[in-house]
Amino acid sequence: MRLSLVAYLVPDYDAGIGFLSALGFDLIEDAAQPGKRWVVMRPPGGGSDLLVARATGGQAAAIGRQFGGRVGLFLTVADFDATAALIEAA
Hints:
Elements: E1 5-10, H1 13-22, E2 26-33, E3 36-42, E4 49-54, H2 80-89
């Protein structure tokens, strides 16, 4: 068994795709669904994929806090300073 997808709330699909792409994530799937899109992105090197989910209604307040104030996603990188600069620039 493996955890295959983790939902990642964003205000806009394309902005979420752009941000994650700038970090090196690959767009795996982008399919239109009635009233929404199914967007899956994979981190460089593999691991659990992210389901990029556009927040709707009251969900918008949970963006950035969807793990209840806890750190919910951990990225392992070879060069912390370079990756931090990449995230800040994205």
